[in-house]
Write a structure and sequence with these properties.
2 domains; single chain; elongated; 51% helix; alpha/beta; 416 residues
Length: 416
């Protein structure tokens, strides 16, 4: 009975709709003969091309505020895209506007619809050029995200600083991981849940002391431990990881093993990070070392902080495929390096991609023992330079205990 009533109601609604349509045609007999005129999507307001032109010609700082690149950087990036044959002018959207669309979305973290309102193009057009510029930036990353100086040389940030030069002249940079928001379905999101309960990507990066990324590994879920990403980066030749030369090392935090080529702080009953020393000064050999180690490694933290602050899309990832999300992370790191290189006067040189060398002995005991000796040696030098009459007996015991541990490690290495 209920089914029949629903059918009767549906037929009655259809009859009413047809009657209203017939009445409207009778009132406007010519409406069927006049073809509909397609109106432009928007008629008023500044077009995207006019917006980019205004940023480049009027207020000097407006381009940097809106797109994060000043006028000279923006023009250099556009010319680089054209010279490398990565982007081409379209009929209605030139390369400069294409790049502007992508930078606007990355900088502001806005949706395609918001960018559509700003640049006066359809959402599909905005999406098309955003993805094309992303792809171009990923290609550029092979020439931009890499070491730009000889790793066997002492970095000028260390060589010209008496605070670090006596102890960390063999440090070539810092290595660390960071979490960046990920958008995945709840069904597939369990592996992406990090220690804070949020869905994220675990990104590993190496950074020189001038805050230029020399390596990134993107694609691991947030629940994965940092050492897993690190081991994957070193062990797979396709990543072309910039391994430290013999006698050189990266600074890393306590999440990584203290092994040859990677120096971590002391942990276990001692303070590790710079904020820990704000109230009370360091005490003992290990804490003096940790403070200086953390102070130099802060270059890495500053790079991550600057990256996330400048490109707001990393805090507001759009609902796009995982591949595009990874491209967004690579693109923002590429732009970060592009800005730093422009400021430091480092040219962007095109080089042939090469296959790196795998390192599968990072957990070997002989490497850990060798690096422990190097770390203790540096810690003793820092300790001697910072010792004063105010240090108490407990600190002296700390020094003696570490010396004994160092001697024991020397014997272990000989016995091995």
């Amino acid at each position: 009975m209920g089914i029949m009533e629903d059918e009767n109601i549906r037929q009655a609604c259809m009859i009413i709709a047809l009657q209203e349509l017939r009445d409207s045609l009778e009132d406007n007999p010519d409406s069927t003969t006049i073809p509909p005129i397609r109106q432009p999507r928007r008629e008023l307001g500044e077009s995207g091309a006019q917006y980019i032109h205004r940023l480049l010609t009027e207020t000097p700082t407006e381009c940097q505020i809106q797109l994060r690149l000043d006028r000279h950087m923006f023009v250099q990036l556009v010319n680089l895209m054209i010279e490398r044959d990565l982007l081409h002018d379209a009929k209605y959207v030139k390369v400069a506007e294409q790049v502007g669309i992508c930078l606007y979305i990355l900088a502001k973290g806005v949706s395609y619809r918001d960018a559509s309102d700003k640049f006066k193009h359809s959402i599909s057009t905005i999406c098309k050029y955003f993805n094309q510029v992303l792809e171009a930036l990923v290609i550029l990353s092979f020439d931009i995200i890499r070491p730009h100086r000889d790793l066997s040389e002492v970095p000028p940030e260390v060589a010209n600083n008496t605070k670090y030069r006596p102890y960390f002249k063999d440090a070539i940079g810092a290595l660390d991981g960071t979490l960046i928001d990920a958008i995945v379905s709840d069904t597939n999101g369990v592996p992406f849940r990090d220690r804070h309960g949020r869905k994220s990507w675990n990104v590993l990066a190496c950074c020189s002391f001038d805050r230029i990324y020399t390596f990134i590994n993107v694609g691991w879920e947030g629940s994965v431990h940092d050492t897993t990403v690190w081991k994957d980066s070193l062990g797979d030749p396709k990543f072309n990881f910039p391994h430290p030369p013999p006698g050189k090392f990266y600074l890393a935090d306590s999440a990584y093993p203290n092994t040859l080529g990677y120096m971590t702080p002391f942990f276990g009953g001692v303070r590790i990070h710079m904020p820990d020393f704000r109230i009370l000064p360091p005490r003992g050999l290990k804490e003096h070392f940790n403070k200086l180690h953390s102070s130099l490694k802060m270059k890495m933290e500053c790079s991550f902080g600057q990256l996330k602050k400048m490109w707001r899309i990393l805090h507001n990832m759009p609902q796009v495929s995982q591949k595009i999300q990874m491209s967004i992370i690579i693109a923002t790191c590429t732009l970060h390096n592009f800005i730093r290189m422009h400021k430091l006067g480092i040219p962007i040189i095109q080089h042939d991609a090469s296959i790196g060398v795998a390192d599968s002995t990072m957990y070997a005991q002989w490497r850990k023992k060798s690096m422990a000796k190097v770390r203790h040696r540096i810690a003793r030098r820092i300790w001697r330079a910072n010792r004063s009459e105010s240090d108490n007996v407990g600190d002296d015991n700390d020094y003696q205990d570490d010396s004994e541990d160092d001697e024991n490690e020397d014997h272990m290495e000989v016995d091995g």
